[in-house]
Amino acid sequence: MSEKSDLIDEKNMKCHMRLDEKDPCPECYGWWLWYSTCNHKKYVCKTCGRPQCLLHWKYPMQIEDEAIHFLKGAEVDSGKKCFVRKARAPTGGEKWKIFTSEEDYESYVRFKRHKR
């Protein structure tokens, strides 16, 4: 996992694939040329070369695109097929979160409802 893909121009941190929302990377589902620049353990997509942090997927995110960016990292870290769903935050706002199962989602909703 620590190897960098040949598809990344490390100097400019750019992917050499043309990706967009309608035609995302088939492996990591991403289309943003946005990289995880933290020092945490990373998953590096073998197809497009995007490094994804394996830590941040557990936290709610501001927008759906950000959650999708971390989706494959979540699947690698959890060993399960994951999905992104909108979840209401205790403050009343809406966030996007990655879940590993329907039970995980229902537990999150019950927990957040309890905290209000």
How is this structure best described in words?
This protein is α+β, with helices and mostly antiparallel strands and 116 residues long. The chain has one domain (8-115). It has two helices and six strands, in the order E-E-E-E-H-E-E-H. The chain has helices at residues 64-78, 102-115, and strands spanning 8-9, 14-15, 42-44, 51-53, 83-88, 94-99. A two-stranded antiparallel sheet has the order 1-2. Strands 3-4 form a two-stranded antiparallel ribbon. A two-stranded antiparallel ribbon has the order 5-6. A hairpin with a 5-residue loop joins strand 5 (83-88) and strand 6. The longest helix has 15 residues, at 64-78. The model is unreliable at 1-14 (pLDDT under 50).
Explain the layout of strands and helices.
Blueprint: E1 8-9, E2 14-15, E3 42-44, E4 51-53, H1 64-78, E5 83-88, E6 94-99, H2 102-115
Antiparallel strand pairs: 1-2, 3-4, 5-6
How many beta-strand elements? 6
Largest sheet: 2 strands, antiparallel
Mean pLDDT: 77
- The coarse overall form would be globular
Q: Number of helical segments?
A: 2
Q: Whole-number radius of gyration?
A: 15 Å
Order of helices and strands: EEEEHEEH
What is the CA-CA span between the terminal residues?
40 Å
Structural class, by secondary structure, is alpha+beta
Quick summary:
The chain has 116 residues and is α+β, with helices and mostly antiparallel strands.
